[in-house]
Structures are given as C-alpha cells and as structure tokens.
UniProtKB/TrEMBL annotation:
Residues 1-27 form the signal peptide. The keyword Signal applies. This is Peptidase inhibitor I78 family protein. It comes from Pseudomonas lundensis. Keywords: Signal.
Amino acid sequence: MSTLFNMKKAAIACLAVLGAGSAQVSASEREAGKCSLDFALTQILHAATPEFVESIRQRSGATVVRVERPGEGYTMEYNADRLRVIVNKNNIIQGYRCG
C-alpha cells in the first residue's frame, strides 16, 4: 500500500513540475469550444457531482462533457470540444482528457 501511495505522490509531483512551466491561458484567449486541461492539476480526487462536473466543463472551455465509468463502453472518436472525466467505481474523479 505504501508503494502505491509513494507512486501517487511522485506522479503528482511530476505533474506539478510540468504544469509550473506552462503559461496560463484565460478562457477568453482559448479557441472557443476547445477543451483545455489547464485547471486539471488541482481538481482530482473530488466527487463527480453534476454541479462540479458542470463547473469544470466551463473552466475547461469544452462545449460537452462525458463522465466515463469503469466497465462501460464509449466511442473513441476524437472530439476537441469534449471534456472526458474519468471516475472510479465510487464516482471519484481520477483524471481528465480532452477528446
């Protein structure tokens, strides 16, 4: 269990370092309707309530959002306007993807 915890800490640290060098882009500066994950580093391990999912959809700039649950099938076609929210079996957000 501690190895998994240490791996999670290392992954979060790497993401923080990678994100620190990226320029912040406001929603108005982004191409309208295109998904952006600028917000995502601080928004994991949160319950995927409808209100929270809508708030992150707005922050991402996406026009549509899809919550993806384990064991369910989804189309793999790329959609630049879509935010994909990956949750675990307890509906806790594990990650985000655009497309």
